[in-house]
User: Fold these one by one.
Assistant:
Number 1:
Amino acid sequence: MHEPLEAPRTPSGTGFTLRVPDEEDAWHWHRVFDHPEVMEFHGGATAELSVYQELTARQRRHHAEHGFCLYSMVAADGPAAGAVLGFTGAQPWPHAWGPAGEIEIGWRLGRAYWGLGYATRAAHAALDAVRAAGVRNVVAMVAAGNERSVAVTRRLGMRHAETFRTPSGREGYCFRLEL
C-alpha cells in the first residue's frame, strides 16, 4: 500500500522516544491504559492483555512493511524516564465503517501523563515518519466529547472534515491533514 521512501526509522522528540512496540510492550500498554478515564472513549473497560498482544504484533508487521506504526512512547528523562507512557503513530483505519483504506493517526497515554504535551509532540514526530513513508494525507477519528484529543488535532493543524456515527450509534468526528 504505502512503501517507505527510506529505511524505516523510529522518531523521537523532546522528553520521549518512540519505538516499534516489542512483545513486552503489550503488557506495558495493558497496564498503563488500565484506568477508566483512559478507556472512556475506547469502550469504557480495560481491554484484555491478548488485545494488546495482537495490536503490538500488528504494529511490528506494519512498520516492517510500511515504515510507520503505532509506536510505544517512552519517557526519555525526568522521574518517569524509561517508562512506557502510551502510544502514538499511524496505521490503516482498522474498521469496515469510516475512512476505510485511509491512514489514521492516533494516540493514547496513561492518565498520569495527560496534560504534559506528550501527545502533540509525539504525534508531530510520528507524522514525520508517516510523511517519510510517502503518505500524503492522514485522518484522526475522535469520539464526540473527547475534548483533549480534539485539542491535539487542532494543534497538529488538522481540520474537521465530518461528523459521523459509529455502528453502535456513538457520535464522532473525522479530522484530516494533508502532509
Note: The chain has a mean pLDDT of 91.
Number 2:
Amino acid sequence: VKPVATIVGSNGQDGQLLKKKLKSIGYSIVGITSDTMDITNSKEVSDLISSAKPKEVYFLAAFHHSSEEDINKDLKLFSKSIDIHVIATVNFLDEITFHSPKSRFFYASSCLVFAPSDIL
C-alpha cells in the first residue's frame, strides 16, 4: 500500500516540486487547489481527511498580495488572509486530530512572519 500525502497548494511552485519528489519515492498524492476545494470549509476538510487518512499533510496554501498593500486599511484583504492562513490551517489541524491522528502536518510560511529584530 502506497503512503498518501495531501498537498494543499499543490499547483504552486513548491507544491509541484514536492508532488514530483513524493511520487518518485512511491507516494500517492492528493492534490488540493483553490479550484478543487474550499479549505476554509470545515466539512470539506473533514471529508477529505476522513477518507484519505494521509500519512502526511503539507499545507503550502497562501493568500498572496503585494507587500506594499496596507493590510490594516483593507478589511477584505485582511479577512481573506485570516481565512487562508488561520481558519484553513485550524480546519486541517482539527480534522487530522479527529480523523487521522497519526498524520504528520507541515506548515510552510515565509520569513515575513517574523518581526524585524536587532537581536541577531
Note: The two ends are 46 Å apart (CA to CA).
